[in-house]
Fold:
Amino acid sequence: MKKPYIFSFANSKGGVGKTTSCIAVGCCLAELGYKTLVIDLDHQGNMSDDLGRGEEDYTITDLFEDPKFDINKIVYPALDGEEPISNLSIIPADITLAVEARSAERFRHRLTILDDGIKRLSESYDFILIDLRPAIDLSIENALLITDLIVVPVDMDRRAVKGIDDLFQVVREIRRSENFVYTLVKTKVNKAHSKMQKSINGHIEEAGYKVAATEIRVSELFKQATEQHRPSPLFAANERPREDYMQLTKELIELVKVHSNE
Structure:
């Protein structure tokens, strides 16, 4: 079974479009024909809700409660409303995840719970996307250790930029290495707010961060999709959200392929 590429969507600040981006890129990968699995590691379960799997009996919590749990029991077809999304599956989260992640500290192989679980998947996936909550716990450490590409959504807010160094310091400590592949993705970009955008871009350039060429433009459709618990590229199939995220998805595919061949 070939090893899937693993993307983790992370930012120590909330409200930057992290979950929206994870769902959207997952949908775009699926549309491009890649067999894709998304994993919700945020106990709030927003991604699970938006992909129709917020009320399942078994979730990712079961794996951290019992590392030998059959991970295949927590893989579900992702839904758009009541319709399955072709090529897209989800491992949902629930509110007890944060508690079980703390209690999982007692296990000797606690840092490889997620990795070991993924290796037991009966299906073969091209991509696995993981939505990380802003706080760092054992489940997040598990994800960062196996991630091929860290995607850091950053909205046009100075506080979103401020937390990037903190996030990267945590990554270095967890991986015990300076070498990891990442890209910032500018979200909620509004050309009308040119002064604010110029200021944020200045901070990013000054810090020398690697930034995706694709920017995600602000759209009221993102909010509408969330309110209806639908993935934005499917809710707005012919609009800006799909166009921007499809372009970003193709860019991320090329980025991870280049680095995997180095």
Notes: The radius of gyration is 17 Å. Residues 240-260 form the longest helix (21 residues). The beta strands are 5-9, 36-41, 76-80, 83-91, 127-132, 149-155, 182-187.
